[in-house]
Amino acid sequence: MTVLHPPDLTMGQAANAFRTGALSPVELLEAVLERIPATESTIHAYVVVLAEEANDAARNAEELFQKGVDRGPLQGIPVGIKDIFDLAGVQTRCGSLVRAFVDPAEVDAATVARLRWQGAVLVGKTVTQEFAAGVVSAPARNPWDVDRVPGGSSGGSAAAVAVSSCLVAVGSDTGGSIRIPASVTGTVGLKPTYGSISTDGVFPLSWALDTVGSIARTVEDAAKLLDAMAGRDRVDPHATASFDHRPDLHGVRLGVPRDHFFERLQSDVLEHVEEALTTLRDLGAEVMETPWPEAAAARVVALLLNRVESSAVHDALIRHAPDQMALLNPDLRMRLDVGSRIPATTYMRALRGREAIKQSMARLFAEYRLDALVTPTLPATAVSADHPVILHDDQDEEPVATGYTRLTMPFNATGQPALSIPCGFDSAGLPVGLHFAGRPNEEQHLCRIAHVYEQAMEWYRYRPELIGGDRTGAAPPRTNISH
Amino acid sequence: MEPSASDTESPTRLDQAQPAPEREGAVARQVDALIEIATKLDDLDLTDVPLRSSYDPGWFEVE
Fold first, then answer.
1. Given an 8 Å threshold on Cβ–Cβ distance, is A338 in contact with B31?
2. Chain B positions in Cβ-Cβ contact with residue A98 (cut-off 8 Å)
3. What is the pLDDT of residues A102-156, one digit of tens each?
4. Residue A138 carries which DSSP code?
5. Residues A103, A108, A111, CA angle at the centre, nearest 5°?
6. Which of these, B10, B42, B31, B37, lies nearest to A299 by C-alpha position?
7. % of chain A beyond a pLDDT of 70
8. Helix or strand or coil: residue A69?
9. What is the spatial distance between Cα B51 and Cα A348, in angstroms, rounded to a whole number?
10. A216 near A168, Cβ under 8 Å?
11. What is the ipTM metric for this complex?
12. What is the mean pLDDT of chain A?
């Protein structure tokens, strides 16, 4: 029988193995820590690996199991934490030289504290684009092609999950920062409803839009991590991961807003998303055209709120610390300068516009009695790290920051939950993402829909060559554990 | 330190950080571009649209 190494298990598989005694948290962490040196030399997903602390946490998780104490699906699971979340005793550098000498955080972010109590093994802090403002996440690279970007701003988290140097990871999404890296790394990225998960202890980018979420290899793992961060336990009927496991989508109504979301796509992306729509129909869903004329305006709303608020976040820096400003990446410095000069009336128009956008989305779902919208996550796959622009089929180039957020940002404006899952590979073997957006506070239903597609296609079984996978199509076989 | 009136009325502190005239021009052009992009919101009917001061979890209910 072919076997997988423990890090290649999904979180759900590892959690089951803990409970049958086939694997222990200490054994799993050992295997993960063995993998990290091999992958980090090219992927650079971590800012810091907290091996000693993680070993203590794994031993504690193991002791809890031995005592019969079960604190849920995260117990003993290696988790990566984006470096804008506070971990007590560790610097929160936010990927910026400005914070190179910042004091270690005194307390955990609220979400991190919940994970820690539930027995999660916090492996380390993952690379973020500077202050979570961007889509490249240097120096992290994409495991499917190390010359390409892992997306951003939660790029380190997604890259780490893609090579299983952690089993799940925490990210944040203000304009697509979970879904973008998930799409280009072939992982699952779940942005929940705005306001549903605490952002306490998370360095802000835009208060009106910031959302904490999860990155994982499967929808179910992403849902379980979300529940753990929200403090929802296993018996909570409203838990995201407690969706039913019917294998079809009969009775589910899916809307496809072609205007805006299907414009200017790479042909491989369009082809795979169209195939996915066919699969969703084959699975029993009613898939219908649902124009949403406000989509472009929704993106503008999110863009303006993001730009102005990120400047407000760094106001003290802009006003009083020119020497610190000079340490910022020039693109970010420019962005903050620009945001600080947007008239207040324009910002207020964006705030009012957001209400109109949300009303339009509510009407769309009501008119078509929708369960979710389906779109591509991105117009393109992973771009070159050296020349980060989207190259369209007509050879036209589009700035990656603009292109990657075109399809994700509208759902930051509405605040509704959205999720990216893999739906195939382009001709270069790079992952393509499929995007679902659901009803507010109905992540459970959204995850059920995505889970049915995922289980039908099993794209998550494909792994990067870097860790022994085969991106040409030979998925690793179903397997048991070896250790 | 409380901001002075001059802090709020002009971006002079910003200029001290980034004095290059060409950079100032680039910033100004991007500001103009964002304000231009914001005109796309003119297509939205903002009549009777409330400005909520906090997130309203009931916004998805259609009357």
1. yes
2. none
3. 999 999 999 999 999 999 999 999 999 999 999 999 999 999 999 999 999 999 9
4. T
5. 140
6. B37
7. 96
8. coil
9. 9
10. yes
11. 0.82
12. 94
